[in-house]
């Protein structure tokens, strides 16, 4: 057999494989009013979800991993069916011009601090900007007439959820942090344990010599989140790692830790600025927030009922339903 003949056969086999794979990926795993969702679309979505879960440490190996993957496959397909149905219902209201799309999407865009964050959000929900605008328009058309909650309902929610509006005692501290990272934690600065402790001890010596704590924090602290404010940090006991909280709560106002405090992040020097007593937020301070919450709940309920009715009317075929 000549070389050209072998190449021809290899090419022919390759084309057959591609054709088979293409046929598999275009096979419908569900249809929504005749519009199909393909195996390829589902596989791509699943692979992205699986990859994200693996980055968080989830293990898909073994029987449990296999069972979870099958459950995830069915749940993901159901979400894709619901999204497809929503888009179909949205487009029944008529086409949107590019100008209308931008007008509708503008409030959503303004919630993000950058264009990159906004695009990341669209990528996460697997929608184009236009599709998101259609969905938002549908929600507005369906729920726009929902009335604001009555005053009695707002007060009732407050009275029944007092714990949501209570604040535990908080401490306002300043702190200076030196990271401990041997290159495996991904912190912005790397030091050995001994190096970080020595740096913290040197900082304490400067404080004892009269250096202003806030000024030193701005110069030395490696915590980028608090450094610009002179290390200022306000927290309740359960909001900080135990070692940090224990050391801070043991201080008197105006005191700082005489020795470096070791946590999972590294070595801290902590100064207690003030204690903020526990308090109950008065009704008038949170009334507007509760009203917004109840209005949003009412809108979600009405939209959910609308979509359930649309689903009841729709012709939906889910070929994975009931499979284990």
From TrEMBL:
InterPro entries for the chain: PPIase_dom_sf, PPIase_PpiC, PrsA_foldase, Trigger_fact/SurA_dom_sf
Signal peptide: 1-30
Keywords (A to Z) from UniProt: Isomerase, Rotamase, Signal
Database matches in Gene3D superfamilies: 1.10.8.1040, 3.10.50.40
Annotated PpiC domain residues: 168-274
GO molecular function, one term: peptidyl-prolyl cis-trans isomerase activity
Key word Signal present: yes
Keyword Signal: yes
UniProt protein name: Parvulin-like peptidyl-prolyl isomerase
């Amino acid at each position: 057999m000549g070389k050209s003949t072998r190449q021809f056969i290899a090419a022919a086999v390759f084309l057959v494989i591609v054709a088979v794979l293409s046929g598999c990926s275009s096979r419908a795993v569900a249809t929504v009013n005749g519009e199909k969702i393909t195996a390829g679309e589902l596989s791509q979505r699943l692979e992205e979800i699986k990859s994200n879960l693996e980055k968080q440490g989830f293990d898909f190996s073994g029987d449990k991993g296999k069972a979870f993957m099958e459950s995830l496959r069915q749940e993901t397909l159901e979400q894709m069916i619901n999204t497809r149905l929503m888009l179909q219902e949205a487009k029944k209201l008529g086409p949107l011009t590019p100008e209308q799309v931008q007008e509708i999407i503008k409030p959503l865009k303004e919630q993000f601090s950058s264009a990159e964050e906004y695009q990341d959000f669209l990528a996460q929900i697997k929608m184009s900007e236009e599709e998101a605008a259609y969905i938002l328009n549908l929600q507005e058309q369906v729920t726009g007439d929902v009335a604001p909650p009555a005053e009695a309902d707002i007060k009732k929610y407050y009275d029944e959820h007092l714990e949501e509006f209570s604040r535990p005692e908080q401490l306002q501290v300043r702190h200076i942090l030196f990271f401990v990272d041997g290159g495996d934690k991904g912190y912005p600065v790397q030091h050995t344990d001994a190096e970080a402790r020595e740096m913290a001890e040197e900082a304490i010596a400067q404080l004892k010599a009269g250096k202003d704590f806030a000024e030193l924090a701005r110069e030395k602290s490696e915590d980028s989140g608090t450094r610009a404010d002179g290390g200022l940090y306000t927290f309740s006991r359960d909001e900080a790692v135990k070692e940090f909280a224990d050391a801070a709560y043991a201080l008197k106002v105006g005191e700082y830790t005489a020795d470096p405090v070791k946590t999972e992040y590294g070595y801290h020097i902590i100064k207690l600025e003030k204690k903020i007593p526990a308090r109950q937020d008065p009704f008038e301070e949170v009334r507007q927030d509760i009203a917004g919450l109840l209005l949003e709940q009412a809108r979600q309920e009405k939209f959910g009922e609308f979509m359930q009715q649309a689903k009841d009317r729709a012709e939906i075929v889910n070929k994975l339903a009931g499979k284990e």
